[in-house]
Amino acid sequence: MDRVDFFDDLASHWDADEVADIDERLQRVVSLSRISEGESVLDVGTGTGILIPHLLGTLGPSGRIIAIDISSEMIEKAKAKRFPPNVRFLLASIENSSLPNEYFDRIFCNAVYPHFENKQRALSELKRLLRSGGTLIISHPIGRERVNSIHRESSSIVAEDRVPSAAKMRNILEEAGFERAYVIDEPEFYFAHALKPRANRI
Ligand SMILES: C[S@@+](CC[C@H](N)C(=O)[O-])C[C@H]1O[C@@H](n2cnc3c(N)ncnc32)[C@H](O)[C@@H]1O
């Protein structure tokens, strides 16, 4: 079994297994991200698309969402929710997406960062895809410790996948070339936010 099989197997019961107040937690992620109407957003590791309704609530019909995932089963579940045509799905890894340079105003990685196999490559791709001054969000709405413990007790495929501490995450983001990184690391909520530096104007 590989990572794709692992997430394919989770797809049928992913929504039912969510914590009862997941919508409030996702809404907090979106509020903290400060997205605005009409923006272009990438939802990385969209899964069954649970973040999408919250994004659409702010982006409105003029916004655009591309939702990417490695699991075809997850994407099928998300597509079955019949989102409007400004939401498009892509079956690919963020590490090799072939999406165009500087296309997105904001990129959300909700409950997915620890699962990237090559994190340096993933972050470099995320930076390539963001417009200058664009925002990267890495969130775990149930909190770092809870995610890490779920992974530890799960399949060997994800057992070592860890959400980093706030200090570690700030370093990771700065080393990857992002700036103004800040991290909220509460017992039941984790939210990291950083900017792609603006291109120098001569
Ligand atoms: C823990 S689930 C979270 C799904 C969704 N974001 C949510 O919050 O419910 C992680 C998702 O990320 C996807 N994923 C893992 N590695 C990925 C990668 N390199 N590129 C894109 N998606 C990935 C998995 O297939 C899975 O659907």
Summary, kept brief:
By secondary structure, this protein is an alpha/beta fold.
Could you explain how this protein is built, in words?
The structure is a single chain. The protein has 202 residues and is α/β, with parallel strands linked by helices. The chain has a domain at 3-39 and 92-195: Vaccinia Virus protein VP39 (Rossmann fold). The chain is 33% helix and 24% strand. It has seven helices and seven strands, in the order ααβαβαββαβααββ. The chain has helices at residues 3-10, 22-33, 52-59, 72-79, 119-129, 144-152, 166-175; strands at 40-44, 64-69, 87-91, 104-110, 130-140, 179-186, 189-195. It has a seven-stranded mixed beta sheet with strand order 3-2-1-4-5-7-6, sandwiched between helices. Strand 6 and strand 7 form a beta hairpin. The mean pLDDT is 96. Bound molecules: S-adenosylmethionine (SAM). S-adenosylmethionine binds at residues 7, 44-47, 50-51, 68-71, 74, 93-95, 110-112, 115-116.
Strand and helix layout:
Layout: H1 3-10, H2 22-33, E1 40-44, H3 52-59, E2 64-69, H4 72-79, E3 87-91, E4 104-110, H5 119-129, E5 130-140, H6 144-152, H7 166-175, E6 179-186, E7 189-195
Parallel strand pairs: 1-2, 1-4, 2-3, 4-5
Antiparallel strand pairs: 5-7, 6-7
Bound molecules: S-adenosylmethionine.
Number of helices: 7
Q: How much beta, percentage-wise?
A: 15-25%
Extract low-pLDDT stretches: none
Q: Class of the domain at 3-39 and 92-195, according to the CATH hierarchy?
A: Alpha Beta
Structural class: alpha/beta
Q: What bound compounds does this protein have?
A: S-adenosylmethionine
Q: What is the subunit arrangement here?
A: single chain
* Rg estimate, integer Å: 16 Å
Strand order of the largest sheet: 3-2-1-4-5-7-6
CATH A-level architecture of the domain at 3-39 and 92-195: 3-Layer(aba) Sandwich
Biggest sheet details: 7 strands, mixed
Q: Any idea what the CATH superfamily of the domain at 3-39 and 92-195 is called?
A: Vaccinia Virus protein VP39
Shape: globular
Distance between the termini: 52 Å
CATH topology of the domain at 3-39 and 92-195: Rossmann fold
Mean pLDDT, to the nearest integer, reads: 96
Question: Level of helix content?
Answer: 25-40%
Instruction: Tell how many strands the DSSP assignment holds.
Output: 7
| H/E element sequence | HHEHEHEEHEHHEE
